[in-house]
Automatic annotation (TrEMBL):
Protein name: Glycerophosphodiester phosphodiesterase domain containing 4
Membrane-spanning segments: 61-81, 101-131, 143-165, 177-202
MF-aspect GO terms: glycerophosphodiester phosphodiesterase activity
Key words, A-Z: Hydrolase, Membrane, Transmembrane, Transmembrane helix
Species name: Molossus molossus (Pallas' mastiff bat)
Length: 234
């Protein structure tokens, strides 16, 4: 009995790290899927590593809207940060119009930061799901919020173009200063984002090779069976 107990404890010790790793990975996948698609159960059917595409046609058509929302939120946040010297003047103009004093500039800065964080989080979650080989299914709540982000950013950019056109000159000058750093950061981001795409293409190629070999093997097997049948008939 003691030997059996010791052997069982050894087996549990050996299987413990593997089980812990699997549980951690499942929790990680469940968290990503839950945040992206609001489905808090990672089912095997959602895994599309052996499929031909990472998402449906609807998701393919809507994913550019997510990228547009991310780019517009980044642009608006950068422009508003560059106008930090004019925050007091902006608050004063709003006070003259509304008659109520408040730090509207900081409120808008917080709003633009939240929009940028939200869109960047969805983009990162989408690439992580592609990296893990799961289907992209963005929940309708996220889709509605993404459309609202695009509308809000477009509205504020239109307001800046109409009533505060000088800010775009400041944006151009600051962009010239930060252009090298922006270039390096874009290169780094593209390199990091290219890994999931390359991994997915390699997976598709392996799947195509596997299916081709399987089809050829099936054809050879059928030809052998037919040849045997013809010999038996003869």
């Amino acid at each position: 009995m003691e030997k059996e107990d010791t052997s069982n404890t050894r087996q549990w010790k050996k299987c413990g790290p593997c089980m812990a790793g699997n549980c951690n990975h499942e929790c990680y996948i469940t968290c990503i899927i839950g945040l992206y698609s609001c489905h808090w159960e990672a089912t095997p059917e959602e895994n599309s590593r052996h499929g031909f595409c990472c998402c449906s046609l609807t998701e393919q058509l809507f994913y550019p809207f997510l990228i547009i929302a991310f780019c517009v939120s980044v642009l608006l946040l950068f422009v508003w940060i560059e106008t930090s010297n004019e925050y007091h003047g902006f608050d004063w103009v709003v006070y003259l119009v509304t008659g109520y004093w408040y730090f509207w500039s900081l409120l808008l800065l917080s709003l633009f930061g939240i929009l940028f964080a939200y869109t960047s989080l969805l983009v990162i979650l989408g690439f992580l799901l592609v990296w893990e080989g799961y289907e992209l299914y963005l929940h309708w709540n996220h889709k509605i919020l993404i459309v609202l982000v695009i509308l809000i950013c477009t509205f504020f950019m239109a307001v800046l173009c109409i009533y505060w056109n000088d800010r775009w000159l400041t944006f151009g000058l600051s962009l010239k200063v930060f252009a090298p750093y922006l270039h390096l950061s874009c290169i780094t981001m593209m390199v990091l984002l290219s890994y999931p795409v390359a991994f997915y293409l390699v997976t598709l190629e392996q799947e195509a090779i596997f299916r081709r070999d399987k089809i050829t093997h099936h054809k050879r097997k059928r030809s052998k069976i037919f040849s045997r049948l013809t010999k038996l008939r003869g």
